[in-house]
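User: I'm preparing a small set of examples for a lab meeting where we compare how different chains pack in three dimensions. I only have the primary sequence for this one, and I'd like the structure in token form so I can line it up with the others. Please keep the answer compact; I'll paste it straight into my notes.
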Amino acid sequence: MSFTALEREYLGTDHCEIGYLMTVDLNRPETIQEAIRDHHLENGDCEPESLTGIVQIAEYITGQLGYTALVDVTSSLPDHLVAHMQENMDEYKVVSEDLPKEMSNAQDLYGG
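Assistant: Understood. Below is the structure token output for the 112-residue chain.
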């Protein structure tokens, strides 16, 4: 069962919906509202270059490298984003190789 499904079962909502409602209340741009609301949708039709697509791909990469908020919880990607990553594997390999150093820099800067 996915994390968001567990949230909905136990809380009656999930962090995607709560974040979305907060961004609506704060009058944030619609692209930000949608990205927060849809960042766990596995059947979405977002474009890879959309904010939603970027967040989904980033969450997938960070999860694969073990940078997750919850142990043993990984995210999957819609098929069209998997295809996009496969078509651009060289670029995503560079991102994946650079990520540990960037995470370390962030930890140094912000603590943790």
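A couple of notes for your slides: The two ends are 29 Å apart (CA to CA). DSSP finds six helices and no strands in the chain.

User: Perfect, thanks.
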